[in-house]
Design a protein that fits this description.
The chain contains 18 helices and 64 strands. It is an alpha+beta fold and 1002 residues long. Helix 1 crosses helix 4 and helix 12 runs parallel beside helix 13. The N and C termini lie far apart (117 Å).
């Protein structure tokens, strides 16, 4: 060892000894100071000297990277006043050397070293750390300069505002000297292993915790588990050199009496998993030099395991490096855990949920029926799909009544001819001859029918692989292979709609409404969450989406721009692709094109697409009238008194405080649910996938999976996220009252498996009756699984979906209904209201984007309480008590007075509606019963107008000579009135009437 190396070693050792000698206690002090102004952390000093000068060295061992750029505030413990005379000598991550004036003499002084202020929106705050400041007087500083000896203050404790904010012990960093010494003590090792229990999650990637310096690298781990428990533990890997393909091999555990826990009961979630769609995968873990990787492991102790001590080994293996053997000892206690430990979140046992396949089998969900195949035609609930020889739809038919309340015997065709591709050759003289193999069915199950077909010419081959599911979803993989070099002028995919089945359109930048006769659209994925549209009528329609083999679901709800769509190589063609809508006298053609391209022999392109045939089922009007939501946590007797039947429990409430993590207060939730059931009320909870509370016990275990669960991003946001997550994340919703900070999920991941298992657990253990979804970041696969677990064993499984209007810059100008249509088959109600304008938008907008009726759903309004008159034309009210001045109880009372249950809803959109008005901008919907009817009238006229009712008494089923037209008094809706058939009825702008037409008995 040369002289320089010897000197550095001695220096590092001396520094290490100096800091190690400064042992410091850690603790929490909830509500002891205002953390929003002074920060979440402080050092408590005890001063026992005298004079105007004191010195302290605080060995704070901070994980933040720039402590020198953060303000330090010293507070006098006696007066609570800020100490102004302060001088910072050394401030770095390892320590702070400070001089200050002990204004009150002996006593306590507090050093707040990470003060911040929140800027931005209250629910999306930006924690900004205060910059250093100079407050000391020149006189005091002058005196300081002349001193060499100072009374020292002693660090009594380093405190955090609460346990969640505490850095101790896993975020208290090792010093550079300690880390260097550790490495030097392992001169031949490329990595070190630090086994850890579940109570100490590895939280830092770029620093070692001081705890590991004190423990040293270990070659054994022991723990205690219960029979039936999924016992979680970690292997912390510190990379001295860069590592690739890190994995763990498990061996059997054996007791002294020869009993076994076999290796197949032990797993590592970092390397082995099951995707959200049920497919298995293996993940390669690499660790950069100087960084830490946690490998989370779990032992599923079989319920029948004989209690005792089980020993064995696991091997940490790294490509090209020697493996390390860790002795593993598990003491199995006789107590049995029936839920594997899921009821105690701190155990981390629910990490096994990440690899769940629960409810994955595509069984048919009510009210849908099994698929039936007859030749090349497949039948499903209310619809039929006939296939052409190339595997593409030859025709799609629907069988719903125009009112959408039942089924029709008469088919409504969507297409004028078969769906087809055109491959336009640049050489106009070349006329290819296509051969089609015909359709071969590869799967025929009640829930899924799959098929394939191959079409080919001498230059191109088109292989179609497709499937239809019981709800009307069709998934097409169209693989185009160049059999020879080929120049193509264009590739076009045609959807030739009938005019009768294409009255409305929504998507591609168009708000829901009447379809334009001509329209052009181009790909702009960087700013537009648009890859398809819905085209249809109320009782027949089709949503389609254009994709390729690299499709990844983008982020949504304020975050689209941070993870947008990938431009499909095939359809987008470097910006050449687009969509055209063209109308003629007989048909409406949607021409999806990709533009000119040259293919070389062997080139492959995927022109994939999805189709979703609407409607999904008839609307359930009786459910609408009988199911009245109360959207607030409140006293159950008070809720019952309103007439509501279902309570929606939002997050940030006592029984469901943390966003999308409804497990911590599950005992309180169960008690509330049980009391609600005793009163005849149902309870649904807020729980979705998009973002996740920082209170989730599994936060750092899931961070160890890279960006599988949490999205990459620029960081920032609330102080907790900056201080404990550090960087590379997206800050999401924040609740100031309880300081709940969420992180954005990455999209499609194993978190959806966890979500399904969690919902199952809440149904089985807590007894919830459904969920309230606030926007959705998962796909239809997960939605089907959720519906299955929610409705199992006779549970009602009610799902309602709320969405803020997605037609804005941050959401990529998509339509909420278009974005979430794949989920509609499993919803019970829509609540599309936030940021929707109920005053300025047309009836066609209401019908397509808000009501849900063209899809078999009904909805409610939100923004500003909605428009009560227009809402009733679609059977909608607002929801109490969420919006101010929007109490729906007067409407509910009229429903009950009239007896809405069992009535036939005949909307204005149906040619069968028996009541119309004399003004085309004043619309009427009829709720018809035997010898009586309720007529909802709403105006879209520009001013107050007088209208006359145009009544088809025969269709209405009422004797006109015995009829009375009564407007009952409805608070905040209308005054009482009586009208004759020929009377003009004044209808105010943006308002309307609810009229009762009753046949009087003789």
């Amino acid at each position: 060892m040369n002289l320089k190396t010897t000197f550095l070693t001695i220096l590092l050792y001396a520094i290490t000894c100096q800091l190690s000698a400064q042992t410091v206690a850690y603790g929490t002090c909830p509500h002891c100071w205002n953390t929003d102004s002074l920060g979440n952390h402080r050092a408590v000093l005890q001063f026992t000297g005298d004079g105007k000068y004191a010195k302290v060295i605080i060995p704070w061992r901070r994980r933040d990277t720039d402590p020198e750029h953060k303000r330090i505030i010293i507070q006098d413990g006696k007066t609570q006043h800020k100490v102004l005379n302060v001088k910072l000598a050394t401030v770095n991550r390892e320590k702070g050397e400070l001089y200050f004036e002990p204004v009150s003499g002996n006593g306590l002084y507090y050093v707040y070293y990470m003060p911040y202020k929140n800027e931005g929106r209250s629910n999306y705050p930006k924690g900004v750390y205060l910059l250093p400041e100079q407050t000391a007087s020149a006189k005091w500083l002058s005196g300081l300069a002349g001193k060499t000896v100072f009374p020292s203050a002693v660090v009594k404790q380093i405190q955090s505002g609460d346990s969640l904010n505490s850095f101790y012990p896993m975020e208290v960093i090792a010093t550079a000297a300690e880390t260097a010494k550790l490495i030097q003590s392992h001169p031949t090792d490329s990595y070190l292993v630090f086994p850890e229990d579940r109570m100490h999650p590895v939280k830092m990637k770029k620093d070692l915790p001081q705890r590991w310096i004190e423990k040293g690298s270990q070659n054994s781990f022991s723990g205690t588990a219960l029979c039936g428990e999924w016992y979680a533990f970690q292997m912390g890997i510190y990379a001295i050199d860069s590592l690739s393909d890190v994995h763990i091999q498990f061996n059997d555990l054996r007791s002294a009496t020869g009993n076994l826990i076999t290796a197949n009961h032990i797993s590592c979630i970092n390397t082995d998993g099951i995707q959200y769609d049920g497919s298995r995968f293996a993940k390669t873990v690499s660790v950069s030099k100087g960084t830490v990787q946690a490998m989370w492991c779990g032992i599923q102790v079989p319920v029948e395991t004989v209690p005792g001590t089980y020993t064995g080994t696991l091997e940490v293996k790294v490509a090209g490096k020697p493996s390390k053997t860790i002795a593993l000892t598990i003491q199995v206690s006789p107590q049995i855990l029936s839920d594997a430990g899921a009821g105690e979140p701190w155990k981390q046992s629910r990490l096994q949920w990440l690899n769940s396949t629960m409810a994955q089998e595509n069984t048919v969900i009510a009210p849908y029926i099994p698929l039936a195949v007859d030749g090349n035609t497949i039948s499903l609930l209310g619809r039929k799909i006939a296939l052409n020889a190339d595997g593409l739809p030859a025709q799609i038919q629907t069988f719903f009544t125009p009112e959408m309340t039942g089924f029709s015997d008469t088919a409504k065709n969507l297409f004028t001819e078969a769906v087809h591709f055109h491959f336009d050759e640049a050489d106009s003289l070349y006329k290819p001859v296509w051969k089609k193999s015909g359709v071969t069915f590869t799967q025929q199950q009640p829930g899924t029918v799959s098929w394939e077909s191959v079409s080919s010419s001498d230059r191109l081959e088109m292989k179609v692989t497709a499937s239809l599911e019981f709800d009307g979803f069709m998934n097409y993989t169209v693989k185009l292979t160049a059999l020879a070099d080929d120049d193509l002028k264009n590739i076009r995919f045609h959807l030739p709609f009938t005019r009768a089945a294409s009255k409305y359109m929504m998507g591609l930048g168009l708000k829901g409404g009447i379809r334009p006769s001509s329209f052009d659209w181009k790909w702009e994925v960087a700013t537009k969450n648009q890859d398809g549209a819905w085209i249809g009528d109320v009782n027949a329609g089709l949503q389609y989406s254009l994709r390729d083999e690299k499709y990844v679901r983008p982020l949504n709800t304020n975050f689209y721009l941070q993870k947008p769509l990938l431009l499909p190589t095939s359809w987008g063609n470097e910006g050449k692709g687009g969509i055209q809508v063209r109308e003629d006298k007989k048909s409406v053609l949607l021409n999806n094109y990709c533009g000119k391209r040259t293919l070389k022999k062997g080139d492959v392109l995927y022109f994939n697409f999805t189709l979703l045939v609407t409607p999904f089922h008839p609307i359930n009007t009786d459910f609408q009238w009988a199911t009245k939501f109360y959207h607030q946590y409140n006293n159950l007797d008070s809720i019952k008194a309103t007439g509501a039947t279902v309570v929606n429990i939002h997050h940030a409430t006592p029984i469901n405080p943390w966003i999308n993590y409804p497990f911590i207060e599950h005992n309180k939730m169960k008690e509330y649910v049980d009391r609600a059931h005793a009163r005849g009320l149902k309870v649904k909870i807020y729980n979705t996938v998009r973002e996740l509370s920082n209170h989730a016990y599994e936060t750092f275990a899931m961070r160890s999976l890279g960006h599988e669960i949490y999205s990459t991003g620029k960081g920032g946001g609330y102080s907790w996220l900056q201080e404990h997550i550090g960087d590379d994340y997206i800050a999401a919703w924040f609740v100031p009252e309880i300081k709940d900070a969420a992180l954005v999920n990455s999209g499609m991941s194993r978190w959806h498996n966890y979500y399904v298992e969690g919902m199952n657990w809440l149904v089985q253990k807590v007894g919830i009756d459904g969920i309230y979804l606030d926007d959705v970041a998962f796909d239809r696969i997960t939605m089907k699984r959720i519906k299955r677990v929610l409705t199992q064993d006779g549970h009602p499984g009610i799902i309602d979906l709320h969405s803020a209007n997605q037609y804005n810059k941050n959401d990529g100008f998509n339509n909420s209904a278009n974005l979430y249509m794949e989920h509609f088959p499993y919803l019970n109600r829509l609540w599309f209201g936030e940021y929707f304008d109920y005053e300025k938008n047309s009836p066609d907008f209401f019908l397509t984007e808000v009501s849900g009726i063209p899809f078999g759903l009904m909805g409610e309004m939100l923004q500003g309480g909605g428009n009560a008159w227009r809402g009733m034309v679609y059977g909608m009210t607002n929801r109490m008590p969420w919006s101010d001045n929007a109490d729906p109880r007067p409407i509910w009372e009229i429903w009950d007075l009239f007896g809405m249950k069992g009535s036939d809803m005949i909307g204005y959109w149906s040619e069968n509606c028996p009541v119309k008005t004399s003004d085309p901008k004043v619309l009427a919907t009829v709720y018809k019963k035997n010898k009586s009817a309720m007529v909802s009238i709403a105006s879209w006229a520009d001013s107050t107008v007088d209208v006359h009712l145009q009544i088809d008494w025969q269709k209405l089923g009422i004797d006109s000579s015995k009829a009375q037209i009564i407007a009952p008094l409805i608070t905040n809706f209308q005054d009482a009135a009586v009208f004759n058939e020929k009377d003009p009825i004044p209808v105010m702008k943006n308002k309307g009437w609810l009229l009762l037409i009753v046949e009087q008995a003789n």
